[in-house]
Design brief:
Layout: H1 8-18, E1 33-36, E2 38-44, E3 50-56, E4 61-66, E5 77-87, E6 92-101, E7 104-114, E8 120-121, E9 125-129, E10 134-142, E11 149-159, E12 167-171, E13 177-181, E14 189-194, E15 197-202, E16 206-209, E17 217-225, E18 231-240, H2 272-281, E19 287-289, E20 295-299, E21 306-307, E22 324-325, E23 339-344, E24 349-354, E25 357-359, E26 362-364, E27 367-372, H3 400-405, E28 412-416, E29 447-450, H4 463-474, E30 477-482, E31 487-488, E32 491-492, H5 500-503, E33 510-512, E34 521-524
Parallel strand pairs: 19-31, 20-23, 20-32, 28-30
Antiparallel strand pairs: 1-4, 2-3, 3-11, 4-10, 5-8, 5-9, 5-11, 6-7, 6-10, 12-13, 13-16, 14-15, 14-17, 17-18, 19-33, 21-22, 23-24, 24-27, 25-26, 28-31, 29-30, 29-34
Length: 528
């Protein structure tokens, strides 16, 4: 049943609470927002874009609403209001739908939440309106105090007119969830979100989410959009991923040298002593790259936008397989290299971008390569890949799931301060000298191994660091590039939409690996 018409005197009381006389925003038209009781400024929203914040100045209430009513003329039916809020911890902020008949409020519905310093969603409002009226949505804090403020993002109000049978979800493995739904009448596209993160838009009625954390529950929303981009129906559901497979986290490049143990009696390079003396003398803050200078990894979906990505600095092979599909969640890693690896498990392909940038509606890369993940991950000279050695970016890259499982089943890749002049060392196909005149400096492609006689279990370091030390013993590490420090290259997890390193207790831009006995490394003879 529709809500009863409010008496005229009560409607005016509602307005008096929400819009007190003589109190106005200092910037009432900012971003099309209207503020009462405070001044509006801009902050970073749920998805990183701009969102309005109102800071209390005076009056019995502080509120934010769109300058125009979201729904100007209603059809009879249910309308869904939603928004996200961030504000002074513990302060009560409310979201209210108001129904207007001309200048009078004839009905309303609200939900409230205790604000916090992180973004959270209001409980959604399902409001049944009558035909011919208008609706608006307002967020407000009653009885605000000096110093209070709150921000609002993703405030929407739309008709829930269409129906659908529901959303089916299936956890395919430890990292993927498949979503399926019936077609919604009148819908032309579907917007898929995991929590507050928009994963993509598709015309299909299926979508597979990727790069998820094992044994974790995820909430999904599928919004059916009509030809005008308006939400015609909303489907929700949740699914929990499986445990990591018994065989371990999947590794690219099959049975290549990347995934082959060194063996019990490797041959050392004849210049081992001199090279490793130079290495130890220039050892500088050994660390693991978690964010800056790491490699962001994104997994492509069949419905993702396709791009022709030009290489602006070096000759590359990014177009070897045709256009490149890049998901909406993909972001280049911070740091000067802006690395991004896009992988498509369905086709067994990987695209590597160096200095990747979004340019308007497209992407560019200073250099890059397209490789098969069933090959050896090596790009032949004179083409340039995403790093100096011409290795694929996923080759040797440390992933957070490998710390979770407690073993790394492949060789690692590292950067070192100073690369010597001369040819690359196989398997590298390119060497980028950095001006050092010492012939004993390392070159791209050289392989180091932690002496197997070191008792890693007895080292006074945490278990995650022992996992890396054991990989250095069993599989070794290839020199991939010059760097200001000795760094083990790892995935930056920004493109996942969550901090996967925090799941294994590692936080910060980089973490120290000083507990590994780097003076016990040795130089192996080239194996090819």
């Amino acid at each position: 049943m529709p809500p009863p018409r409010l008496p005229r005197w009560l409607a005016f009381c509602v307005l008096a609470v929400l819009v007190p006389a003589g109190v106005a925003s200092a910037s009432p038209k900012l971003l099309g927002w209207h503020g009462v009781g405070g001044a509006i400024s801009l902050v970073h929203g749920v998805r990183g874009g701009a969102a309005p914040r109102i800071s209390f100045e005076r009056g019995p209430v502080m509120s934010l609403s769109a300058a125009a009513k979201p729904v100007a003329s209603t059809s009879a039916g249910v309308y869904v209001g939603s928004a996200w809020v961030e504000g002074a911890p513990g302060r009560r902020v409310c979201l209210r739908v108001r129904e207007w008949a001309g200048p009078e409020v004839v009905g309303s519905l609200q939900s409230c939440a205790a604000a916090s310093a992180t973004w959270q969603a209001f409980p959604p409002l399902d409001y049944r309106a009558r035909a011919g009226h208008s609706l608006d949505l307002v967020a407000f804090e009653p009885k605000p105090a000096r110093g209070d403020s709150f921000a609002i993002d993703r405030m929407t109000l739309h008709a829930q007119e269409a129906t659908a049978s529901g959303l089916g979800l299936e956890a395919l493995d430890s990292a993927h969830v498949r979503l399926d739904w019936d077609a919604v009448p009148g819908a032309s596209t579907y917007r898929v979100s995991r929590g507050s993160l928009v994963l993509g838009t598709t015309t299909a009625t299926t979508f597979t989410d990727a790069l998820l954390w094992p044994r974790t529950s995820y909430d999904y929303t599928v919004e059916a959009l009509d030809g005008n981009g308006q939400v015609a129906a909303t489907l929700t559901g949740s699914a929990t991923t499986a445990a990591l497979p018994a065989a371990g986290f999947p590794r690219p490049f099959g049975g290549s040298f990347w995934n082959t143990p060194i063996g019990s009696d490797p041959k050392l390079d004849p210049n081992d002593a001199a090279v490793m003396a130079h290495f130890v003398a220039h050892l500088n803050y050994p660390n693991l790259t978690l964010r800056s200078w790491g490699v962001d990894v994104a997994e492509a979906h069949p419905g993702d936008p396709a791009y022709d990505v030009p290489c602006t600095m070096y000759s590359c092979t990014l177009g070897a397989f045709g256009t490149l599909r890049i998901p909406a969640t993909a972001v280049p890693a911070p740091g000067g290299d802006h690395h991004l690896a896009v992988v498509d498990p369905a086709t067994g392909r990987e695209w590597d971008l160096w200095e990747a940038q979004r340019q308007g509606a497209g992407w560019t890369s200073a250099a890059g390569a397209a490789v098969s993940t069933s090959g050896d991950g090596i790009v032949e000279s004179p083409k340039a890949s995403g790093d100096a050695a011409n290795f694929a970016l996923l080759a040797g890259l440390l992933r957070p799931e490998e710390i979770l499982q407690g073993h790394i089943d492949h060789a690692l890749v590292i950067t070192v301060p100073g690369i010597a002049a001369g040819p690359p060392v196989c398997p590298a196909t390119h060497n980028a000298p950095t001006g050092t005149n010492d012939p004993n400096a390392l070159r791209e492609g050289m392989k180091l191994q932690l002496d197997p006689s070191v008792d890693v279990s007895a080292l006074p370091i945490p278990d995650w660091e022992k996992t890396i030390a054991r990989a250095l013993q069993v599989y070794g590490a290839y020199v991939r590039d010059n760097g200001g420090t000795v760094a083990v290259m790892a995935e930056n997890t920004d493109s996942r939409g969550y901090d996967a390193w925090a799941k294994v207790g590692l936080e910060g831009d980089v973490v120290s690996l000083a507990g590994i006995p780097w003076t016990k490394l040795r130089l192996l003879a080239p194996g090819c």
